[in-house]
Amino acid sequence: MSRIVDFTLAVAAIAAAAPPASAQTWRTVTSARQTHGERELTVDVQYGVGRFSLVPGPAGTLYRMEMRYDEERFTPVRAYDPASGVLRLGVRGRHGRGARITLGDRRRSGPPPTFDLALSPDIPLSLTLELGAVESDVELGGLALRSLTYRTGASESSVRFSRPNPVACGELAMEAGAAELHVTGIANANCRRVRFQGGVGEVTLDFSGEWRQSMDADVDLSIGSLSLRLPRDVGVVIRLNRFLASFESAGFVKRGRTYYSSNYESARHRLTLDINATIGGVDVAWVNR
After folding, report:
1. Where do the structural domains in the chain lie, given as residue ranges?
2. What Å distances lie between residue 215 and 32, 66, 192, 228, CA to CA?
3. Average pLDDT for residues 84-101, to the nearest whole number?
4. Best CA proximity match to 232, nearest among 251, 259, 258
5. Using an 8 Å Cβ cutoff, are 8 and 31 in contact?
6. Cα–Cα distance between 214 and 157 in angstroms, integer?
7. Which terminus of the chain, N or C, has less C-beta within 10 A?
C-alpha cells in the first residue's frame, strides 16, 4: 500500500547559515494536517538530537509540527497513510546514512535543533516516541492514548499526564539509557500495566492522578536512583529484588520479601510493583492524589 507523504501547509525557510567550516545550514519547517473522520491513529515519532516537546493540539487538528534542523545532514519526515491510519514524524539522515548522532553533534555551537509537536486530542492514539540525545518536555494529559511506548537514550526527560486519559490504555512502556527521567501523574494515563527499564540514571515515577482501575508495574533499573511517589489511599504491594540497592520501607509491612502498605486490604484500588534494582537506591514518598 503506497505511503502518502503529507506536505499540507508545509512552509520551509532558511533560518540561519553557519560558516563553511561548520557545514551547517539551518532550516525551519512547519507542517500541519486537519482531521478527516479518523477513528484511530498510530503515531511513530523518531528524533535523534536536540530539544523535543509534545502537547495536545487543538480540536480538529490531526497534528502540527515545527522543526529546526541542519539540512546538510538531515531531512524531515512527515508521512501519513490515511488507509492504514499510520503517521510517521521526525528526521532521517541524508544519503541513507540514518539519523546517527555523534559527540561532535552535541558540541556544535549555536542553538540546538528543535522539534515541537502537537497531536489530536480527539482520536485514540497508539503512540511510540523514540528519542536519542534529546532534552524532552512531553505533556500527554488529555490525549486519548490506547498505548504508549517511550524510549530515550542519553537525555533529560519530563513526561506528564496532567489530565486524565479519556480512553482505556493497555500498556505504558518506557525505556531509558543514561537518562534523567521524571514521569508524573501516571494514574491519569489510565493504563492497566506499566513497564519501565532503565540503564544508568535518576528516575522518578509519580503514580498520582485519577485512579479508575488497579495497576501492575514492572520496574527494572540497573544503576541509579528510583524515586516512587505513591498515593496514600491506594493499596500498594512491592515485590523487591535488589542487589547493593537501598530501600526506604517506611509505611510498609514486610511479609517475607514482599512489602504491603497498611491499607492494602481495604483500598479500593491497588498498585502491584515488581522492582529489580541492582546498584543505587529506591525511595518512597507518600502523596495526596
Report:
1. 1-39+49-119, 140-289
2. 36, 36, 5, 14
3. 76
4. 251
5. yes
6. 26
7. N
